[in-house]
Amino acid sequence: xxxxxxxxxxxxxxxxxxxxxxxxxxxxxxxxxxxxxxxxxxxxxxxxxxxxxxxxxxxxxxxxxxxxxxxxxxxxxxxxxxxxxxxxxxxxxxxxxxxxxxxxxxxxxxxxxxxxxxxxxxxxxxxxxxxxxxxxxxxxxxxxxxxxxxxxxxxxxxxxxxxxxxxxxxx
Length: 171
Hints:
By secondary structure, the protein is an alpha/beta fold. The chain has helices spanning about 20-30, 75-95, 105-115, 140-155, 165-170, and strands at about 5-15, 35-45, 55-60, 60-65, 100-105, 120-130, 160. β5, α3 and β6 (about 120-130) form a beta-alpha-beta unit.
């Protein structure tokens, strides 16, 4: 994969451990000398680190790194609302003139799409890393989730799936 981009932002939900798919993607960008990379990890699940973790690299050197003062990942709906608000905040504050926004799930891609509407990012890629036909036991939450997923799928500039079945099942 050849990325001819000067500035990339990567948003992911993860537990805070090492070796996640988004960590590998971040390392790939560092190794391939992307001029500027911002990675923001949002908490995911009860056992995750509770903070939002921010890393900013310029020319393969750490420029800025911090954790948010806001520390919670449950209740889930409130945590997701916080992630959207904080994602927009960080995107507006640090994302000006971003060539590529990569979201590792549909909610974070929605943030990227809003930033694109504001003219802050030029392109939005959706990386699909999993698929579950029934995400939540609550039908209302499932409808919200899959509507967000369709918005992310049909409005992203590119959708990258780990395999074609996950993408086909979503369409």
